[in-house]
Amino acid sequence: MAAAPTVIVSRRVRPGAEKEFERWNARIRAAAERFPGNLGSETQPPNEAHPDDWVIVYRFGSIEDLERWLRSPERAELLAEGETWIDGPVREQRIVQPDPGTEPVTAVLSQRVRPEAEADFERLHADVAQTMSQFAGFLRSDLAPSVTGLQDDHVIVFSFDSKANLDRWLASDERQDILRRMETMIEGERTLNVVGGFGGWFAVGDGPGPRRWKQAIAVLIALFPVTLTLGVLQRWLLPGAPWVAALFAANVLGIAALTWVLMPFVTRQLDTWLRR
């Protein structure tokens, strides 16, 4: 069963305005609860995990119900009123688990970031994740920074619930704008590898098969070292190769390694956990 569509909202409250914010937050949560499909909400005051932010989590029964609330005039009016007590930008992240009838798709983007631009690049990734979360089918985006002596590239791994939704993001004007912003921060070429649905890598047998999120974690465990290794080999063996040819060769080798070597090994090691 798919998890309820969820939106996570982080706000930093102006010092001294906590009481007013709590009263306003109770009102906006009550307004959300009056909307069809609302499954509840919760407030997490600042704590060790997010020491400066108040985090509010809303859950709805369907994507349509969630979108109806997010775009409602009632919410817009309350948000405008709440700006009085908010310090800085509001951050939203939408989480929608894939439909059981679709296969999630993961893409891996690697690039070498200029040392002086690493902090800017990590801030850019936060903006990228925020922008991607507005696109249908977005699941998650994770950044693995470079590690001196081990991994030269910053690697971004992001997933959508279907190939069509991933393609919509890859072709979007928003992504093209982000790539232009990224140009001044990186050196050399970017490498993008796309992995299709995970189903063929997991034996179903007589049961329903592993949960989608567990499949995604297993694939990430196998995919990450493949991407790093191929990036090193590409620069070592094919330093002057045309970008398209090098990318094609990397995809062929990566999928072959995953299908016949790494995924069988990973699924055997994680078999008990995958089937829980």
Q: From the 3D structure, determine the CATH topology of the largest domain.
A: Alpha-Beta Plaits
Describe the global form.
globular
Widest beta sheet: strand line-up: 2-3-1-4
CATH architecture of the largest domain: 2-Layer Sandwich
Task: Report the order of strands and helices.
Answer: EHEEHHEEHEEHHEHHH
- Report how far apart the termini are: 15 Å
Beta strands, count: 8
Bin the helical content: 40-55%
Name of the top-level CATH class of the largest domain: Alpha Beta
Describe this structure in a few short sentences.
This protein is α+β, with helices and mostly antiparallel strands and 276 residues long.
Q: Which features would summarize this protein structure in a list?
A:
single chain, 276 residues, alpha+beta, Alpha-Beta Plaits, 2 domains, 9 helices, 8 strands, 45% helix
Report on this structure.
- The protein is an alpha+beta fold and 276 residues long.
- It folds into two domains: 6-95, Alpha-Beta Plaits (2-Layer Sandwich), CATH 3.30.70.100; 105-274, Alpha-Beta Plaits (2-Layer Sandwich), CATH 3.30.70.100.
- It has helices at residues 18-33, 63-70, 73-82, 118-132, 163-170, 173-183, 212-237, 243-269, 271-274, and strands spanning 6-11, 38-44, 54-60, 91-95, 105-113, 138-144, 154-160, 186-195.
- The strands form two sheets. It has a four-stranded antiparallel β-sheet with strand order 2-3-1-4.
- The longest helix is centred in the C-terminal third of the chain and has 27 residues, at 243-269.
- The chain is globular, with a radius of gyration of 21 Å.
- 24% of the residues are buried.
- The model is unreliable at 203-208 (pLDDT under 50).
